[in-house]
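U., I forgot to send this yesterday:
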Amino acid sequence: MRRLLLFALMLTPIPTTAAPADVTENPMVNLTSGRRMLVLRAGKERLLTGRAPEGEGAPFRILNGAEVLWEGKAGEAFEVVVHSRYAHLLSTTADNTAWQDLSWGEWDSTTKTKARPKHAIKGLSPKDLSAPGADAGPALREDLNHLATLRTKYNTLSIAPGEYHFYPEGALQMSYYISNHDQQNIQPVGIPIVGQKNLKIEGNGATFVFHGRMQPILLMDSENVTIENITIRHDAPYYNEGKIVEIKDGTTTLEYAPQFRWQVKDGRYYLMGDGKPQAPNAVLAFQQDGQMVPTGRGGDIVWPSRCQQVAPNRVKFFTDAAAHGLSEGHILVQRHYGRPHPAMVLYRANGVTLNNVVFQDSQGMALVAQRSRDITIDGGGCVRAPGRVYTVSADATHFSNCAGTITVKNALYEGMMDDAINVHSTCLQIEKIIGKREIIARYMHGQAVGFEVFAPGESVQFIKGPTLENLPQLGKVASVRKTDETHLHLQLSADLPKGVSVGDAIENADWYPAVNFIGCTVRHNRARGSLFTTPKPVLVKDCKFIASHGSAILLAGDAQGWFESGRCLDVTITNNLFDHNLTARYQFTEGIISIYPEVKQPDKQQTRYHRNIRIEGNTFLTHRVPLLFAISADGIIFRNNTVKFDDKYPGMHGGKPYVLRHCGKTRLQKL
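Result:
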């Protein structure tokens, strides 16, 4: 079995994918195969008693916010005071079945279990953490633990300016699913902000530096939290950059700055950014001014690792960069496709605000938000560190199965390996229909499994697989049970709509966000500038998209590959600058604005997937590539835009300004 198990708390049967559950007298706690922590909602300071599961496996832990309340062996009894709003049950090695005899009791001064000791808020100070290798994690967690117990209206934790270091050895071991990432059994979390309410963390310009492979920041089961004025980076970049100093006789020599970590072993090159040797899969080429090299074709270049070290900071590779259109002076980002940890995760976190939070690099995406509501980002973004051309390893911001309103404004996103913003739902494929009201559905993409998609009482949108058509009749979840890591067993409150069949998809119709992407600059990044897949209103206004290697804006949607869905029904793109984007081609990037849902059978559609898209009052400075590429869209308006064509880079699609396939009504300005 896997190292971790997912525990599901049941009063009457409830879904393992539900929001944190309440515990009452004599609850039953059953194991559902899979992984991750069980979440219990305390609501107030209370006594939790019970026993760890029987059988093999240890240690078992009870976490309260960001501290370990109890650790014990299989079958061992416990009695702990939960001081803040949530408790989390965790085992790192268990292969057995169930936590036992859990119950809440009231805690008072006569209870033999002692209360948590009082603690004065210290904040972080470089003076207190000046020793070499000093780990700021335990000190910061102590303050966060105390703040989670306070019942004051609003709490502020102020951090002195300076540089603080965090290490995996001092991190808190936790376990949860992260959308669109490699699923880790354990996440060593440097800064766990868990069970907090009405909290502000003021960074005052501090820099948080993380060492080795770890999850820098987790904000979970919290509400109304503000983080501001911090910079986040790792002590060594996850990818490397080498400057081409010689191309000769079919070989290419790269020169590396000291900040990049690598080794040559047995004639092969390995990246060492997190201390673990990993061979790069590909390179991305940048000019010295920071713009990606326009290729007119795919941007990822296969780059063999066979090499010879020829100087302390130089490596000769047995491949010809000139054959890929590269030349001396170009900077190559050597990368692999691993995504172990984003820099920040928001999970069941509502009302979060990030003000001037800067990400300089990551071991995955910069920010992932999932099952969270009402998020605001103002300023900051993904900004290059001195001497580097790239920033984060995938998307800058990624919102999966969120709700409310997402507002991202006045931020700079540059040098990312993927999109500045990606907003989508996760759909599951119907694998089996058991009865009129009962189905088995499957998480289809390996990097998008396990986290909440449905809970009882929530609405189900049915999607026809071959045509991506959304059925007009919604379902309602009566119960949901996770049978293993990739399957859900759903019981509906009414019969399935007519026409639903195996191979179709379902998504949660209650968890779609509205999006405001305003006043941001996106430049010199791979793939796409922005990606939106949500039926709630989307506004892209006053932004600058400068030299994104692929499309500036993509409206996607599929139930075939990534299973990222949520058709767009109301999109406004206005007063933006599009400056020479689409100089290479990536997945779904066929126009500066690309509307590209994956539809297997568009000829059989009765209704188009995306609708009501207004592109007005923008400025396009571009070589001869499509301004607009659209598949399966209806109600497109493209008018009153300023367009200036040139021949700075090779064209695409014969230089046509518009390419439309299987589209309905459109209004396109004459050029």
